[in-house]
Amino acid sequence: MNQLNNPITPGYIPRPDLLNRVLAHRNTPDIKVIIGVRRCGKSTVLAMLADALTSDGVPSQNLFYKRFDAFDIPLDYDATDLHEELIQATERADTAYPFTVMLDEIQDVPGWEKVVRRLHTRENTDVYITGSNANLLSSDLATYLTGRYIEIPTFPLSFSEYLDFSHSTKEAQDRSQDDLLADYLLYGGMPGLFALRERTTESIGAELRDIYQSILFKDVAQRYNIRDLNSLEKLSRFLFSTSGSLFSARNVANTMTSAGQSISAGTVITQVDALCRAFLLYRANQEGMQGKTVLRPLSKYYPVDNGFRGLATGFSPRDVGARLECAVYMELIRRGYTVSIGTSDTSEIDFIASRIASGGMQKQYIQVTASLLDENTRAREFAPLVSLTDAFPRIIITLDPYSAGISEEGITVVNAKDWLLRD
């Protein structure tokens, strides 16, 4: 295999759902753009793809892989170097098979768009690129290839994948799904956690801190020329620890300034946007319920993985409701939903999730709560859903194992573990 004498990611644990989403676009003319936060498994996707193609009989000389954040890449490596390597590789390829190009963390190569443009014009060539920043699609490539690329988002492990990974380790084989869910909500699902020799709070924290700092400095500070690293780190940690709260740049700036970190509302907005572009944060905007308009909608922010919230809170077990809300939000995003916050003059619905499916628009209203055993909590969670008059599903997701079922009002209460494991 060109540029791949050794496996891309040796000893990886398969993620078949993710691989199938990529294979669905195999040998199409579109450029396949695999994006997601750094170290969420994009290189593993390419490894699984290469293995699948090899198993399907594609000769190794027809597979070109290169990772551009690797140690052995020259510091001055640019588009010309890549173009020359690709020309040499295509000359060795077997013309009876497509030539597959896999370019990992391509955003680190100056002028990479020019090479990808030329690859797109080459016959019988299947191109996959990965990147850890949304700028990958806001570059000249997106302008030139309008309608000619397909974006494939990649995320840290779902709970279903987390169970698969856990069952591959001896220490977790005898643990219950409830115990593993508790770990998932606290430590998150970054795949690198399963490469640790021993998984303790200290070792998990060190691994997550390394990932977080790599993202913060490489994909945020360096890419957007943010020099005040202290304010950037404090802002990101503040947003992690307060995820699920309505966001106001002015209030955040005032809070941080009062705590000794002087920052303007404009700087907060700029830095939050950079964190979102690095896929470290995701945004949910307010949406009026029952067709009402929100004149000045606010937003909530959620970390891409609960491990980052845990890192910011010292892995406190006390905020389980907020951690469950983060996990549900990211699972909805993973399932292809657009997610907003339902709001009215008197109430709020945690999530309004919508997506286009083969049968038309799918929409559901979702409340998330740790437990419904307290009558006041139950009344508070049910009230906004009862007030709705359309026919879309209304769901309450809870860790409470005793409240599952369908209420008299037609509201479905489902256990969080069961919901997270649904397809």
Give your account of this protein's structure.
With 423 residues, the protein is of the alpha/beta class. The chain folds into 3 domains: 16-153, P-loop containing nucleotide triphosphate hydrolases (Rossmann fold, 3-Layer(aba) Sandwich), CATH 3.40.50.300; 159-283 and 301-317, no CATH class; 332-421, Trna Endonuclease, Chain: A, domain 1, CATH 3.40.1350. It has helices spanning 16-23, 42-55, 79-92, 112-121, 135-138, 140-144, 159-167, 177-187, 201-221, 229-241, 249-258, 265-277, 306-313, 320-334, 375-386, 416-420; strands at 31-35, 63-67, 99-104, 125-131, 149-153, 246-247, 281-288, 299-303, 338-343, 348-357, 360-369, 394-398, 405-406, 412-415. The protein has a 9-stranded mixed sheet with strand order 6-8-7-9-10-11-12-14-13, with helices on both faces. It has a 5-stranded parallel sheet with strand order 2-3-4-1-5, with helices on both faces. β11, α15 and β12 (394-398) form a beta-alpha-beta unit. α7 (159-167) crosses α8 (177-187) and α9 (201-221) crosses α12. The protein is globular.
What composes the largest sheet?
9 strands, mixed
Number of structurally distinct domains: 3
Shape from CA axes?
A: globular
Computed over alpha carbons, the radius of gyration is 23 Å
The counted number of beta strands is 14
Count of helix runs: 16
Give the helix/strand class.
alpha/beta
Strand content: 15-25%
Q: What's the pLDDT, averaged over the residues?
A: 91
Question: Helix share of residues?
Answer: 40-55%
Question: What's the order of the H and E elements?
Answer: HEHEHEHEHHEHHHHEHHEEHHEEEHEEEH
Low-pLDDT segments: none
The largest sheet has its strands arranged as 6-8-7-9-10-11-12-14-13
Distance between the termini: 35 Å
GO molecular function: ATP binding
InterPro entries: AAA_14, DUF4143, P-loop_NTPase
Keywords: ATP-binding, Nucleotide-binding
Protein name: AAA/ superfamily protein
